[in-house]
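Lay summary. Proteins are chains of building blocks that fold into shapes, and those shapes determine what they do. In this project we predict the shape from the chain. Here is one chain we studied, written as its sequence of building blocks.
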Amino acid sequence: MKPSARFARIAALCSMLVAAAGCGGDGNNTSVSISGNITGLTEGGLVLSNGISNVALGANATAFTFPSRVLIGSPYSIRPSVLPANLLCTVTNGSGVAGTDSIDQVQVSCVPRHTLGGTITGLNTAGLILANGSDTVELPAGAQSYVFAVKVGEGFSYGVTVLQQPTPQRCDIVANGSGLMGVADINNVQVACQ
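And here is the predicted shape, written in a compact code that computers can read:
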């Protein structure tokens, strides 16, 4: 075999090996890493998911990197799959389609969250259901107070409504039914039934 033919054959073989390894030979050029920064994570328990893998974060963590990479051209969406007991964490720049550059601009921001509840007067029959968004609480006859199971993050809005009346009574939200969560629990949303 002539040297030029041998060289051409070796070059073709090298090209195939490089292509099989992902263009560049390091095996990582077909996927990218996902990482970002965290603020306000004052307690542990936060778990982030990107649809491929999860990353659990401890108290005071300020950065994260997912253990699995995302294929170039694939969609990704980062969300909290588990929240700390007393924090609400939200994600910005957390979804898109993976390009050729690493995804490192994801921001996770955590704020304290507090309980939302109040008082009830005149409830003599069962069947009253109150709602704050998709969170609901059903109250028995004679109930004088209530608390929603899902806590509300500081600075986030709330709005308590009557989802179901306790027939034959009628109940109304008479005070403090909506607003922004402050730095302490809210326990003064008043419900009056007739």
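What the prediction tells us: The first helix runs from residue 3 to 20.
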